[in-house]
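Please annotate this fold before class:
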Amino acid sequence: MAVYDRAPASTSPEWGFGTRGLQRWSHDIRCGEGLGLEGRQTLEPTETDEVLEAIDSVVQALTDNLSRTEVALQRAAEIREQRLAGRSYTDIYENSERPLLVEILTTNVLELHDVGHRLRTCQAWALRQEGLSTQRIAQLYGVSRQRIMALLRSASDTASQGINQLRK
């Protein structure tokens, strides 16, 4: 996993009320906090930077997918060889090693979908925190402004759940 240079942690209180409502004052950058920010500012890399963590997750998922892809290629070659030798698909699949080729493909797609969603959400939130409009973020992503608003809402919902857990 990649290691990034990050600023040292702050010693300030973890949560507080500021001009933008309840916000995290410490070293953490969390998706969905402070969505009302209008001014442009640069988010500095910190000890816990969710965009960098999301990128690390993407790298890990891609690495895991490479390993699974090697197995999938082997399984595909085996299926082809067995089918050309005259075996039925039923016989091939009932006697195949697990995971099946389709299971490997499904795992790869779902893994990339999950980490891709997290990365898109965290990046959209970070860009919004730096003052980009939802229209500009939509242009960068090649999607509608409404899709960006949905991403930002999902990030906000996740942050709200985290706040509620802290209060318990």
